[in-house]
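Async update (no meeting this week)

Hi team, since we skipped the sync, here's where things stand on the single-chain job. The sequence we agreed to prioritize is pasted below, unchanged from the tracker. I ran it this morning and attached the output directly underneath so nobody has to dig for it. Comments welcome in thread, and please keep replies under the output.
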Amino acid sequence: MSREKAVPVLITVLLGTFTVSLNNSALNLAIPELMRVFDVGAARASWVMTLFLIAMGMTMPLTGFLADRWGAHRLYLLGLWLFLAASLLGALAGTLAWVLAARGLQGVAAGLMIPLSLPLIFAAWPVERRGRVTGVWGFAVMIAPALGPSLGGLLLEVSRWQALFLMNLPVAVLGLLSGHCYLEAQRRDSARRFDLPGFLLVTLGVGAVLTALAGITSPADLHQTMRWGPLLAGSLLLIVFVHIERRTPHPLLDLNLFAVRTFRISVLLACCQAVVTFGCLLLIPIWMQHVLGYDPLTTGLIFLPTALVAAICSPWAGRLLDRDKARHVVVFGMAVTAAALLGLAMLGPEAPLWLIGALMAARGIGLGFGYLPVTTVGLNALPNRPIAQASAMNNLCRRLASSLGVVLLALHHDLSRARHLAQGAEAGAADMAALGEAFLVLAVLVLVATPLALSLPSNRREVTSAHDPHRATQTSPK
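Output:
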């Protein structure tokens, strides 16, 4: 595809990705307002976020099959149409049940769109320029969550919570118009069979695991059978899914893609980075408000340096990928991430705000150089045909890993805090000690994963030699 045709494809995908990311980060602020308007507790209102994540996770495994049968461009546009309709439904909702239904539909739409973003870009751009264009895509992915809370807060000041759904419409409409004009038809496999057993196993398994993990918020929850039942059942379903998919001739998700070493390593590193990212979203608000005594506005603003610096670094990292610096880029990103986490672990209760901001900006450097580039490296190691499946599996693994990581970090915080209180520490000191341990654990996780980054190929020739051509032929049925 020529550059004149490829640029509009990139813009189209950027509009859709920006819409989803902006909406999700802005709606976090609406939870207190929804609690007041519908007279419900925090646990019920929080399903506005939880249901979105569960629906997205359950939809992602389908994207590879549906993209093959219908075409990735059609499926992406269907997802964007569904997201637009769900946003209208949310804005018109008169009950919390309708709001939750709208969020569930938005999650389904996001589950269709997000895994197809990179495959659509990769289909339009040659391998030697993918790093640069995915760096631009990464800019949108990073900048939207930075703008979302600020824009959402402004809308809540001058309007009602419905405006947070309506804010999606202009960008979504632009994305649809651009998509219908510029997204070209891609090769389809209309003969591909639907793997019904695999579909039932993976969707029910992922849904049960994510639902169970979302309900575990304290050590007391571990003693409730209703929490363990869905988690164990979901885990068992996923184990059976892996066993069956390795033997079926037409799998819903081709697990043989993990036999490509570079892709396998990229997914592991992406999962590590996802645990760190979502772990910090849990730990830093607790630290800022419970220990340092800052208000919610300051707490929200402290995340701004991370997002802005990551957005700035992402295109730079992408250009370096195109110059055959993949290994160096990812290792540098992980090293900076580990250093920032160690810095956060060492801070005391009197830490100045500027130092916290500087360490959060360092986290942004780590994200920009380590998070998205490693996904690009992994997908570049595969032939074009199975990239939609591979992207879905990457996203799904990151979703499961981050959910599990957040639960473990939350449980560790509560248990560690209780231990320090039992030893005579004051509440603030106990919180500080527990959070310091958690940041240290995250830093160690990154350092342990860094040797994997050292084994990544540093140029396209190494990617080609590392690719297993026999397995590549197995990624799509004949």
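Quick observations from my side:
The CA atoms of residues 224 and 331 lie 42 Å apart.
Confidence is low (pLDDT under 50) at residues 464-478.
Reply here if anything looks off.
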